[in-house]
Specification:
The structure holds two protein chains of two kinds. Chain A is of the alpha+beta class. Chain A folds into three domains: 203 residues, Aldehyde Oxidoreductase, domain 3 (Alpha-Beta Complex); 322 residues, Aldehyde oxidase/xanthine dehydrogenase, molybdopterin binding domain (Aldehyde Oxidoreductase, domain 4, 2-Layer Sandwich), CATH 3.30.365.10; 117 residues, Aldehyde Oxidoreductase, domain 4, CATH 3.30.365. Helix content of chain A is 29%, strand content 24%. In chain A, the strands form seven sheets. Chain A has a seven-stranded mixed beta sheet, sandwiched between helices. A six-stranded mixed beta sheet of chain A has the order 7-15-14-13-8-28, with helices on both faces. A four-stranded mixed beta sheet of chain A has the order 16-23-24-27, with helices on both faces. In chain A, β13 and β14 form a beta hairpin. In chain A, α7 packs parallel to α8, α8 packs parallel to α18 and α16 crosses α18. The longest helix of chain A is centred in the C-terminal third of the chain and has 20 residues. Chain B is α+β, with helices and mostly antiparallel strands. Chain B folds into two domains: 74 residues, Beta-grasp domain (Ubiquitin-like (UB roll)), CATH 3.10.20.30; 66 residues, [2Fe-2S]-binding domain (DNA polymerase, domain 1, Orthogonal Bundle), CATH 1.10.150.120. Helices cover 26% and strands 16% of the residues of chain B. Chain B has five helices and five strands; from the N terminus they run ββαβββαααα. In chain B, a hairpin with a 2-residue loop joins β1 and β2. The longest helix of chain B has 13 residues. Classes of the chains: A alpha+beta, B alpha+beta. Chains A and B meet through α1 and α16 of A and α2, α3 and α5 of B.
Chain lengths: 732, 159
């Protein structure tokens, strides 16, 4: 497929794309949220001050919720609005609405939520005291284990056992469009429209807490200014808040967070701590991997069990090892709940294993490239869950190409003389080998049972009907290309419907790098089904198809002609959820990333001078979009590795401003070199594998490995801010 | 959606996208809100509200400013250009290069690029990456933007 330009690109470039806060709604009120202010405690009283005239406001609390006070997710443990207790500082308690946003602000200032504090658990790495325990046995939300072979015996027989502890910090999504949602009631139907990744998650949240039939709920996605996982689960919370206000006000209500509220109160990447105890032989071959991963889940379960699951499945790295034990735990703390963020646990665990591989190499005195080359999984070998890899990809060739592209050998020589002569700058190169499973983990896609529709219209054109959202990654363009190529149509003959749950089937959430790969395949099959319904075969394309669709409509005036496809598990995939054994994913994408850095010994600043990302991602569907995914993901990874630091106060982000939570600008990053190797995946749309999350896995370890090469410091935690590096270098 | 703030009745006349307009604003009103909610020009986006991200960039007397930091009354007598003034015909290179993904930072990026195109002498002492550093983008990793700006500049944009 050629690189067709982004379908909605010109509307975005000219500012004509209408996001949720750009769409005028007649008679709309603004909504705003009053929050707990305490990390844990019992609500004793809510006082409404006399600084505003409360008769002008619509006020909602937990008593206004028609159904269960629960946000429907994996566990329904998170209240829509706190009733008796609070579990984090920014937990919503009361909502207000008014025609003036400024008046809303004043009203929020007049609300005093009186809370009797209880002992909060604020550090997920520390075993909670009895009085801090709020869930199950010791605040463990979720515990998952993977076992392969006999780890203890293998460790006993290893030439060396090398240990390490690695930590990764939280990360804020900083989608440029803040969270926003509008709601109103229309002919007895609660309509919600806004910025989101997963319209049917929102439907499920609304039907549950509002105790409504799905036919009485309609969810519409507005153009969404970035998601990265941040608009996977949180929009359900906001949709319920807007809907409750709108139902009580009997008028439309819109809630649009400002940046400060968005950064403080919405989800972030889970902080993680990963311990490695690795048995190796004298040649650096992995004999046993004993891994423990602990993540901070925050105050409610949200998506943490599946983040943990993806994290531990990727924790061993893209290597072959016969004896593996991985224990994972997600811990409750009284922090703002963590949620989905690009990579979903895998960047955390792969930071640890890829940093650890360099530590192993240093301990053994072997080149880190060579250690990886010896251990990279070969076809016929299996991952930690026993998934036998047999995809024909040469992972060593991916590594070698990255080493070649990044000119690692010649740069090492240049750096040696540079570092010997420069008074205060030190340079180094580092690599990381990574992998990322596409689509939902294990039986996840089976449970989702996604459905895709393609409508043939009376003029012969087609409309793609899907709940999968355009959030900047290119869904509209990819779906257009796929349908056009499948049917032999021009792109102009394809329309991609707005995700509106009154029209589109549930094709699943827009997450987990699944849209092009999993849903794209459904789109192709739905196109084939459409053709069959008008009496044609898979070989028929273009004008023949158009004519047949027009003829069908002439015979069935006013009829609805829908091609449909439902998810079917690829036959090669088999997963045992109970034992955590088998094919965790239908397929993995593979990569090796290389970073060149410069460390300033005066300021302890680390600057990335060059970055090369080499990956095998199945078939590349659109070179410009695919490159953009990799480059954007790498730069998010650079930010996470070096600058995106949190200042915590009572389980919440204190630096909730772009002034002091620093993300990379164009000056902070080099051009990102991208190379794709293609090995089409037969069960992926157009042969594609998932691509969106892979680039988040490599930058952290590649950059810190480069720092180790430059100055010999084995840093173990990110973000590696100048302060943290200084501490390590001056206290080492 | 108009924000019915208490207007202190300051009448501001300005040249907006080539047309004379007059608008009554409050003392504390931000140019960003006046443009979006009073004048209906929603192409200008709010990103951070504190002048860090550049999403709300407009050109004021030819200079890029963060409209979230500009009190509306300061626009009196000024020439203001928003994204709505930009002709789609000029944006082909940025579309081709992948300069936009989610689109929320894009209007600000485009206006900074227009400013750069009108002030090419800046390139004698500064690189494109430096000159575009006032606009945060979380999607592209910047290469798509920088490539698009360079293409627009017609080869003048080498670092």
């Amino acid at each position: 497929m050629a690189s067709r330009p982004r379908r909605e690109g010109m509307a975005k470039l000219t500012g004509r794309e209408l996001y949720v806060d750009d769409q005028p709604i007649e008679g709309c009120l603004w909504g705003m949220t009053a929050r707990s202010g305490e990390p844990r405690g019992r609500i004793r009283e809510i006082r409404f001050g006399d600084g505003v005239d409360w008769a002008e406001f619509v006020v909602v609390d937990h008593r206004d919720i028609p159904g269960p006070n629960e946000i429907r997710m994996i566990e329904n443990d998170q209240p829509v609005l706190a009733a008796e207790r609070v579990r984090h500082v920014h937990e919503p308690v009361v909502l207000v609405a008014h025609a003036s946003r400024e008046m809303c602000r004043r009203a929020i200032e007049q609300i005093e939520i009186v809370i009797e504090p209880e002992p909060a658990a604020l550090d997920y790495r520390v075993e909670p005291k009895a009085e801090q325990i709020q869930s199950g046995d010791g605040n463990v939300f979720s515990a998952i284990n993977i076992t392969k072979g006999d780890v203890e015996a293998a460790l006993g027989g290893a030439d060396r056992v090398i240990e390490g502890v690695y930590e990764t910090g939280a990360q804020e999504h900083v989608y440029l469009e803040n969270q926003g949602m509008a709601a109103w009631v229309e002919d007895g139907v609660v309509v919600v429209q806004g910025s989101m990744q997963c319209p049917y998650y929102v439907v499920n949240a609304l039907t549950h807490a509002l105790e409504r039939d799905a036919s009485k709920v309609r969810v519409i996605q507005t153009p969404t200014g970035g998601g990265f996982g941040g608009k996977e689960d949180f929009p359900s919370n906001l949709a319920l808040h807007a809907a409750l206000l709108a139902m009580k006000a009997r008028r439309p209500v819109k809630i649009v967070y400002d940046r400060g509220e968005d950064m403080a109160a919405t989800t972030k990447r889970h902080p993680a701590m990963v311990r490695h105890r690795t048995g190796v032989d004298a040649d650096g071959r992995l004999v046993a991997q004993d891994i423990e991963m602990v993540i901070d889940a925050g105050a409610y379960v949200t998506l943490s069990p599946v983040v943990l699951s993806r994290g531990i499945i990727h924790a061993g790295g893209p290597y072959s090892c016969d004896h593996v034990r991985i224990n994972g735990r997600a811990m409750l703390t009284n922090s703002v709940p963590y949620g989905a963020f690009r990579g979903f646990g895998a960047p955390q665990s792969q930071f640890a294993v890829e940093r650890h591989m360099d530590v192993i190499a240093a301990e053994l005195g072997i080149d880190p490239i060579e250690v990886r080359r010896r251990n990279l999984i070969r076809d016929g070998q299996s991952t930690s869950t026993g998934q036998v890899i047999n995809d024909g990809t040469d992972r060593v060739a991916v590594l070698d190409l990255a080493v070649d592209r990044a000119r690692v050998t010649s740069k090492r020589a240049t750096h040696e003389s540079f570092n010997a002569s420069h008074p205060y700058l030190r340079r180094g190169v580092g690599i990381a080998s990574i992998y990322h499973g596409g689509g939902f983990t294990g039986s996840g896609e089976d449970y989702l049972k996604s459905v895709m529709h393609v409508a043939g219209r009376a003029d012969g054109t087609v409309e793609v009907l899907s709940a999968n959202t355009e959030i900047g990654q290119g869904t509209q363009t990819i779906f257009t290309s796929m349908a056009a190529d499948r049917l032999g149509y021009e792109p102009e003959d394809i329309e991609v419907a707005t995700p509106d749950t009154s029209r589109v089937p549930n094709s699943g959430p827009t997450v987990a790098s699944r849209t092009a790969m999993v849903v794209g395949k459904l789109l192709e099959r739905a196109c084939d089904d459409l053709r069959r319904r008008v009496g044609l075969g898979d070989g028929d394309v273009g004008a023949v198809v158009k004519r047949a669709i027009c003829d069908w409509h002439e015979l069935n005036p006013g009829g609805s002609l829908i091609g449909e496809a439902k998810y079917e598990k690829p036959p090669h995939v088999s997963w045992d959820e109970k034992m955590y054994r088998g094919d965790a994913y239908g397929v993995f994408a593979w990569g090796t990333y290389a970073a060149e850095v410069e460390v300033d010994l005066r300021t302890y600043e680390v600057r990335v001078l060059a970055f090369d990302a080499v990956q095998e991602v199945g078939k590349v569907l659109n070179e410009t979009l695919a490159r953009g995914q990799i480059q954007g993901g790498v730069v998010q990874g650079i930010g996470w590795a070096l600058m995106e630091d949190f200042v915590w106060e009572r389980g919440a982000m204190k630096n909730n401003q772009l002034t002091n939570y620093i993300i990379p600008t164009s000056m902070d990053v080099p051009p990102i070199g991208v190379v794709f190797l293609e090995n089409p995946y037969e069960h992926g749309g157009g042969g594609a594998k998932g691509i969106g999350e892979l680039p988040m896995d490599g930058p952290g370890p590649a950059i810190l490995n480069a720092v180790a090469a430059a100055i010999g410091v084995q840093a173990t935690a990110i973000p590696l801010t100048p302060e943290r590096l200084m501490e390590q270098m001056t206290h080492a | 959606m108009p924000e019915p703030a208490e207007h202190n009745g300051i009448e501001v006349g300005l040249t907006l996208n080539g047309r004379q307009v007059s608008v009554v604003v409050g003392l504390a009103d931000r140019l960003l809100d006046t443009l979006r909610y009073q004048l209906g020009l929603t192409g200008t986006k709010e990103g951070c509200g504190e002048g860090e991200c550049g999403a709300c960039t407009v050109l004021m007397d030819g200079v890029p400013v963060n409209s979230c930091l500009v009190p509306s009354y300061q626009a009196r007598g000024c020439t203001v250009k928003t994204i709505e003034s930009v002709d789609a015909g000029e944006l082909g290179p940025m579309l081709e290069s992948g300069a936009t993904q989610c689109g929320a930072c894009t209007p600000g990026v485009v206006l900074s690029a227009r400013w750069l195109a009108a002030n090419k002498d800046l390139l004698e002492s500064h690189g494109v990456r430096e000159l575009m550093a006032g606009n945060l983008c979380r999607c592209t990793g910047y290469d798509g933007i920088i490539d698009g700006v360079r293409a627009e500049l017609g080869g003048d944009g080498c670092e």
